[in-house]
Design a protein that fits this description.
The protein has 389 residues and is α/β, with parallel strands linked by helices. Helix content is 39%, strand content 16%. Strands 5-4-3-6-11-12-13 form a seven-stranded parallel beta sheet, sandwiched between helices. It has a two-stranded antiparallel ribbon with strand order 1-2. Strand 3 (42-46), helix 2 (51-64) and strand 4 form a beta-alpha-beta unit. It binds nicotinamide-adenine-dinucleotide. The site of nicotinamide-adenine-dinucleotide has 29 residues, from helix 2, strand 4 and strand 11.
């Protein structure tokens, strides 16, 4: 079949296997160019198929030379419909890792479930013995409680007061004002249940109980803070409450004797971030400013800098709250001042001129394997790509 992008709102419902492979190859080449990095040799990544989790897996495999187990929730191709991008990414990653003589084990299913935790413990026991590093990089709109079966949904809403925000409809290329009512207590609690740290602890407990966590094993999760302009919807909103919980969970895990860290990453274009109101507009402005200052980074640049410069092979450089600050360049005063100057001036008419919306769109399409020069998008393509997962 010939596979073209089909965009519906903030998602693309098709993805291209050759383009996703090109995306993965590009990230591998970035890491390979840095040379070998010191780091753990047996790594579990939960949420390993796209975005920050995929780049983490690539850095640990191609930088540290680690054997990896990846857990993700992706859709294989069926009835002539392409698979999801994370499926194709994982197939390409696995082929490249195996070609390098590395183990790459894959588990496709709901990471919040006990069944998938059990399967993962089993695979680690059988193939790696134990793991030395666990990276927790899930971004999900819902979670089924493994004990009760109750389904919790996260919401992206302000807390305490309504919020009217300038936002970008990325599909229609329109700058619009969007009013969002505040979340109620239940919605706040549900968002914390989905995106907070509870499941991170359950993962670490399951690995420990299964005897597959090495004595010195550490764990890392990812969070975001961002500037004031996004605070009502992000840091002070429902998702921010969940992120605070996740950050506090690192301390809980440390109390249990597990070295646990949260890295505050920068805003990038991923499937998860494109769904957040205000963020695509902020990212389009941020990219413009950071590219002009030569400080632009995507997922792979961030994850390479994390492991090459900040993680300190288990002794990370942190802020006063114990967090690793990979958002240090994003939050530089000169970057945020420049964003603040552009923010009020953006209109539908000048969007392309005053922001890097073109860069945003390019990154967005690349998430699904489109916009790669080396790929012939008019060619017949086999959508069914095998993956043992
Ligand atoms: P993403 O959407 O690219 O990746 C999410 C991953 O989670 C995928 O591998 C997906 O398969 C997996 N996943 C989702 N639900 C699952 C489930 N039920 N079971 C198994 N796997 C599941 O997201 P991302 O933006 O890379 O986010 C990863 C982490 O990084 C999140 O904690 C996010 O908050 C954080 N972060 C993101 C940004 C950003 O700008 N994108 C910035 C800072 C921090």
């Amino acid at each position: 079949m010939v596979i073209k992008p089909k965009i519906r709102g903030f998602v693309c419902i098709t993805s291209h296997p050759a383009g996703c492979a090109a995306h993965v190859q590009e990230e591998i080449a970035h890491v390979a160019a840095k040379g070998a990095l010191p780091g753990p040799k047996r790594v579990l990544v939960v949420g390993s198929s796209t975005g920050y989790g995929l780049s983490s897996r690539i850095v640990t495999a191609f930088g540290f030379g680690a054997d990896t187990v990846g857990v993700f929730f992706e859709r294989p191709s069926s009835n002539g419909r392409p698979a999801s991008a994370g499926w194709y990414n994982t197939a390409a990653f696995t082929e490249a890792a195996e070609a390098k003589g590395l183990f790459a084990g894959n588990i496709n299913g709901d990471a919040f479930s006990q069944e998938i935790k059990d399967k993962t413990v089993e695979m680690i026991r059988e193939k790696l013995g134990q793991v030395d590093l666990v990276i927790y990089s899930l971004a999900s709109p819902r979670r089924t409680d493994p004990e009760t079966g109750e389904v919790f949904k996260s919401v992206l809403k302000p807390v305490g007061a309504p919020f009217t925000a300038k936002t970008l409809d990325t599909d229609k290329k329109l700058i619009v004002e969007q009013g969002i009512e505040p979340a109620n207590e239940q919605e706040i609690a549900d968002t914390v249940k989905v995106m907070g740290g509870e499941d991170w602890v359950l993962w670490m407990d399951a690995l420990k109980a299964g005897g597959v966590l090495a004595d010195e094993a550490a764990t890392l999760a990812y969070s975001y803070i961002g500037p004031e302009v996004t605070h009502p919807i992000y840091r002070s909103g429902t998702i921010g409450k969940a992120k605070e919980h996740l950050e506090n969970t690192a301390a809980t895990l440390r109390d249990k004797g597990i070295p646990a860290w949260v890295a505050i990453n920068k805003a990038v274009v991923t499937q998860a971030s494109s769904a957040i109101p205000v963020v695509p507009l902020y990212v389009s402005i941020l990219f413009k400013v950071m590219k002009e200052k030569g400080l632009h980074e995507g997922c792979i640049e961030q994850m390479t800098r994390l492991f090459a410069e900040k993680y300190g092979n288990g002794n990370p450089e942190t802020d006063a709250e114990g967090r690793i600050r990979l958002d240090d360049w994003e939050m530089k005063p000169e970057i945020q001042e420049a964003v603040k100057v552009i923010w009020p001036t953006v209109t539908t008419e000048n969007l392309e001129a005053v922001t890097d919306f073109a860069g945003y769109q390019d990154d967005f399409l690349k998430l699904f394997g489109f916009n790669y020069d080396a790929v012939d998008y008019d060619a017949e393509t086999e959508p069914d790509v095998p993956l043992d997962a």
